[in-house]
Amino acid sequence: MSFIRTVVPLSVWAAVALAAPAAEPEATPHPMVTAAPVLPRDFKPDTYVKSLIDGLGSDVSSYVASGVPQFFQDFPTGDKVKKSLGIDDDGLKAVPTSVLNLPSYANWTDEGWNLRVHGNVYKLPNASQDKIDELANVFLIGTEMKKLAPNEQDQARNVTRSIYVVQQAHENVTVHFENDVSVEPDASGGVINAKGGAQNITLPYETTVEGDFDTFVKLKNTTGANGGHMLAGNATKSIQSLNMYVDGTMSGNATAYLVPPTGFTIISDIDDILRITKIYVPKEGLLNSFARPFTPWMNMPEIYANWSASIPDFHFHYLTTTPEQVTRNYMDFIYKTYPLGSFDTRPLNFSDVSATLQIRRFLLDKIFQTFPQRKFILMGDTTNSDVMKAYPAMAKDYPGQVQCIFLRNTTATDDTDLFPYDTSGFEGLDQKQYMFFNVADELKNLDIVGGNCYNPSVKQNVTFGFQGRGFGNSAPKQSLMTSYALSFVVLASVFNMML
Ligand SMILES: *[C@@H]1O[C@H](CO)[C@@H](O)[C@H](O)[C@H]1NC(C)=O
Ligand SMILES: *[C@@H]1O[C@H](CO)[C@@H](O)[C@H](O)[C@H]1NC(C)=O
Ligand SMILES: *[C@@H]1O[C@H](CO)[C@@H](O)[C@H](O)[C@H]1NC(C)=O
Ligand SMILES: *[C@@H]1O[C@H](CO)[C@@H](O)[C@H](O)[C@H]1NC(C)=O
Ligand SMILES: *[C@@H]1O[C@H](CO)[C@@H](O)[C@H](O)[C@H]1NC(C)=O
Ligand SMILES: *[C@@H]1O[C@H](CO)[C@@H](O)[C@H](O)[C@H]1NC(C)=O
Ligand SMILES: *[C@@H]1O[C@H](CO)[C@@H](O)[C@H](O)[C@H]1NC(C)=O
Ligand SMILES: *[C@@H]1O[C@H](CO)[C@@H](O)[C@H](O)[C@H]1NC(C)=O
Ligand SMILES: *[C@@H]1O[C@H](CO)[C@@H](O)[C@H](O)[C@H]1NC(C)=O
Ligand SMILES: *[C@@H]1O[C@H](CO)[C@@H](O)[C@H](O)[C@H]1NC(C)=O
Ligand SMILES: *[C@@H]1O[C@H](CO)[C@@H](O)[C@H](O)[C@H]1NC(C)=O
Ligand SMILES: *[C@@H]1O[C@H](CO)[C@@H](O)[C@H](O)[C@H]1NC(C)=O
């Protein structure tokens, strides 16, 4: 199915006027709400739903229309941050530089290990708590900082501080590598400590205007303690790890995973599959992303721990399109709850909506092309239209490289999920290659290594078209649609108030 971008008229103010009669129309979007929605050309939502979309306007309607419900959009950067915090360049000079260094993967080449190094250089201004609380209130919907529980306030302050950072352009980044990683048995898919490889590397490019760096570097085969060395990629099946430290800061520590050419890699999304986000209920999604401590979804930690222990040398790669600014919270949660592994997040230059919709495919292409002989297990859920499009497309575009696609059917366990999703990409794929599942237990006892990824006893109904409650063939439940519509009106009126 081909897609076109359709900008729904900005008539949100009609809806806002109902909820908040004094509202003045303003075109600036809420910082966490996606701008223009994407509608498929032959998409025919029910009349009721269509009027709902039109009535909500471009700022909020994309939650419904694109199925890419992104709360975290259009975060302030650079001068906007300085202005919001009331700081100038002189004030920033005294602030130490921080580095977000994402755990990364290396492939084996004729010239040795080739490691991706990616992240962001920034400064974290020391804003007062009052200022942070004031800024945090902007992100909250239907509540405010002083009404939150203390642990929620802490979380909201943390996220707000993480968002109000000033990215540092044109910086050189030097990374120190050390082979002293402590590896927990079975926690990380058979990862072993490299026996050599300590070295310092300055990246070949300065950071981009957004403070980002993302490049591959060649690791030298240096000798470690007791004459040890890194193993060649074609001499081992194990994943070796090295510690990375960025020069001049304590904030840029990460792990590098040296991943052999063959074997299995799982690429896992995080929201609504590894943690409860409820991205499909905007108000809940915002609270779960912004104020509540992250909580695992069902017994996914047990499933992943088991896969880590039972699938030989399983490489875990977490790929979320959440923006870089909030990545630390995601990493912190993942590494406490799930097996260790490399990480991808949305770089800052992918911030407009069309780029947002391409970022997942861009990052998937990068890892598939880095490991042309590995087999991939792709994990996600039905509420991300980019997942629904990209995952089956990877199976077609990289024949033989996709072992399994697992998609949590969020509709099955949550009545409040009204998002439409498109299963047409799965037409023509072997049923053994994919499964739409309802609860985490349905992932037990599958033969992933043998390529039997579908459990016939699991109830799934794939029509190769638009599916979902309130869209496509099933009639919307009026009461649910009404509560859904109300949550948008709340959203619209709140962001109007803050303008
Ligand atoms: C392992 O890889 C290196 C570098 O690509 C190559 O020189 C060597 O011949 C390979 N060894 C085997 C056993 O394939
Ligand atoms: C940050 O600001 C607070 C006052 O808002 C001050 O007490 C504290 O010393 C400052 N910290 C640093 C590291 O500058
Ligand atoms: C927010 O919390 C994360 C995870 O605990 C932590 O790594 C990060 O440093 C915190 N960020 C700020 C700005 O305090
Ligand atoms: C970064 O390193 C390059 C090469 O050493 C040098 O030419 C450039 O001036 C450096 N940039 C900064 C901002 O220090
Ligand atoms: C890396 O640089 C640090 C100083 O920045 C130095 O102490 C260390 O010995 C260097 N390591 C190697 C392996 O060259
Ligand atoms: C490094 O060199 C040692 C000794 O020559 C060799 O055994 C080992 O395979 C090499 N490792 C890599 C990663 O090239
Ligand atoms: C980063 O690593 C350095 C060197 O081992 C250590 O001193 C520092 O505490 C680490 N920082 C964090 C945030 O783990
Ligand atoms: C973003 O930057 C990366 C390099 O860091 C580049 O490969 C990519 O094409 C850029 N994407 C966009 C949308 O500008
Ligand atoms: C290693 O990864 C790089 C970067 O993605 C890719 O260009 C190259 O083809 C890969 N090499 C091999 C041998 O797979
Ligand atoms: C984990 O594996 C064991 C044995 O391999 C099995 O008995 C158990 O049911 C598995 N648990 C899950 C959650 O898959
Ligand atoms: C998802 O679950 C819902 C509710 O059980 C069901 O109607 C729908 O057909 C399922 N979708 C798929 C793709 O299996
Ligand atoms: C599967 O879903 C379609 C479309 O929602 C529906 O018409 C059909 O009755 C469903 N089939 C089963 C067996 O549930």
UniProtKB/TrEMBL annotation:
The keyword Signal applies. Residues 1-19 form the signal peptide. InterPro entries: APP1_cat (IPR019236), Mg2+_PAP (IPR052935). GO terms for molecular function: phosphatidate phosphatase activity. It comes from the Eukaryota. The keyword Signal applies. One of its GO terms (cellular component) is actin cortical patch. Residues 264-409 form the Phosphatidate phosphatase APP1 catalytic domain. Pfam families: APP1_cat. Keywords: Signal. This is Phosphatidate phosphatase APP1. It comes from Apiospora kogelbergensis.
